[in-house]
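note to self: dont lose this again. the chain is below, predicted strucutre after it. 419 aa total, dont forget to put it in the shared folder this time
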Amino acid sequence: MERPARLCGLWALLLCANAELSETQPPVTNLSVYIENLCTVIWTWNPPEGASPNCSLRYFSHFGDKQDKQIAPETHRSTEVPLNERICLQVGSQCSTNESEKPSTLVEKCISPPEGDPESAVTELRCVWHNLSYMTCSWLPGRNTSPDTNYTLYYWHRSLGKILQCENIDRKGQHIDCSFDLAKGKDSSFEQHSVQIMVKDNAGKIRPSFIIVPLTSHVKPDPPHIKNLFFKDSALYVQWENPQNFSSRCLSYEVEVNNSQTETHGTFYVEENKCENSEFGSKVTSCFMVVPGVIADTYYAVRIRVKTNKLCYEDDKLWSNWSQPMSIGKKPNSTFYITMLLIIPVIVAGAIIVLLLYLKRLKIIIFPPIPDPGKIFKEMFGDQNDDTLHWKKYDIYEKQSKEETDSVVLIENLKKVSQ
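---
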């Protein structure tokens, strides 16, 4: 009879323990929040008072929007988040890591956004990590901001050890930017940590703005350097060097080929190397066959740009600037084309003038002008009147001459008779 009694006692203890574990635990105490660096928010709390000694406490927490749920034994939680909006964390205690278990009453602690008019905060704040060497952040002034506002940018990264101020602020109209050195370190975890950015004014009249910049994105490489172009086996090859600080496998390439003679344009995307180092030397990082079936000595101009790929980075949208173009082949004689451009309009204009003159002459031959009958009769009758008037004048003159002659003869005869 003793053994069954002992079994019943053990079973009762197990039931009591399970009952204690299933009971809702008391809430956590002394929940507080503070900020480290620029955008690191840390919550801390104490274990609940009166918790069961047989309970292995775990703490259930999530943010106000019920995102990023977490169950852990630590009495603290931290996160990197831009402090532009109100952020709240809710924490409860429970005795297991099972999410189906009902936690204690949740305790909430919030951190408010910085003071100031939201319309005074800068807008379009964004940052780009150039060639893994330096970072440039740019922004536009807020709507309710004085034009003479003096801005200050602060940045922090784990490798820096402290918050630093950007000194190289540049204004170009409404656009403002600032650049600071941020070289990739030898530590393999360097890119796993983000850069925290804050922009405010010196007088404290505008609301500060925050941004978190992951170093696995927002990366813009420098343009590559074209080393050589050559024809081989009816194909055009391009030899180039990648920008520093990048492995070839982490880059994607775009090669642009222009032929000015045929006015053709081709774009080729390269995801991997196409040439062996043994052919061009160990310093060559990449090579690509551009155009198969080309004609030797044909004039080509080539340029290249690169971007990061998703094999090494999360972002693959920021292309580098184009490289300096390099050409190969015989360049067309520009003097000949300029001369032709000047001569052809002159020839065309002369041909048009000759054609117009010829058409005018041809019109006269085909459609001769019809004479005006009125003009003809006028000329005929006008000539006859002139002749009649002439003869009338001659008859009068002859008559006057004859009378004068008769008068002279008569006077001579009278003189003779008188003698």
